[in-house]
Every structure is written in structure tokens, then in C-alpha cells.
């Protein structure tokens, strides 16, 4: 085999090997889907000021004493005159409330 023919054959072999390696790299090797990372849970201590608010019926309630206490609380504050994103946020909060019970 002459030197020119050997160089072409070597170049073609390297090109073929690199294409095979690239094609193989895109496949899932494990056969099972990747597991998402475990959730990291951090503890936080939050204190609310015990301010007076009005509930949905117009009755006065205390934020800390009557509403929060030692419960998990999700709050959303919107402008009732808002016509853009506020109705969407209110809908999401309603679904959260239904799911949490």
C-alpha cells in the first residue's frame, strides 16, 4: 500500500469513527429516564404583624391571631380594579385553595 493511499484510508477511518461516536452520543444510555434531583427542604421562620384586616364578608380579623397562628398560609394580594394579570392570579389562587382543601 502506498503512502498516499494509506493516508486517505486513515483519514476516512477517522472521519467514520468520529461520526459513529457523535451518533452514539445522542442516545439514552441508561434505558431509564433520568430521575429529577431530590427536593431540598429548608426551614424558615416567618412572623406576621398582627394587623387588622377585613375578610371576604367584611368582618374584622387579626392576621396573626385569627388567620395564621400555627397553620400553613398562602396569601395573595391583588387590586380589585386590575383587569390584566390579577384575574389570572386569582384563578390560580382559587385552584390552589381547592387543591389544599
UniProtKB/TrEMBL annotation:
It comes from the Bacteria. Keywords: Copper, Disulfide bond, Metal-binding, Signal. InterPro entries: SCO1/SenC (IPR003782), Thioredoxin-like_sf (IPR036249). Disulfide bonds join 82-86. Cu cation binds at residues 82, 86. Residues 1-23 form the signal peptide. GO terms for molecular function: metal ion binding. Belongs to the SCO1/2 family. This is SCO family protein. It comes from Pseudomonas soli.
Amino acid at each position: 500500500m502506498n503512502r498516499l493511499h494509506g493516508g486517505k484510508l486513515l483519514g476516512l477511518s477517522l472521519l467514520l469513527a468520529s461520526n459513529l461516536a457523535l451518533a452514539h452520543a445522542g442516545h439514552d444510555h441508561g434505558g431509564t429516564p433520568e430521575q429529577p434531583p431530590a427536593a431540598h427542604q429548608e426551614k424558615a421562620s416567618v412572623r406576621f404583624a398582627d394587623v387588622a384586616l377585613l375578610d371576604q364578608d367584611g368582618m374584622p380579623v387579626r392576621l396573626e391571631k385569627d388567620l395564621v397562628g400555627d397553620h400553613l398560609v398562602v396569601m395573595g394580594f391583588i387590586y380589585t380594579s386590575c383587569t390584566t394579570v390579577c384575574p389570572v392570579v386569582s384563578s390560580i389562587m382559587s385552584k390552589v385553595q381547592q387543591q389544599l382543601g
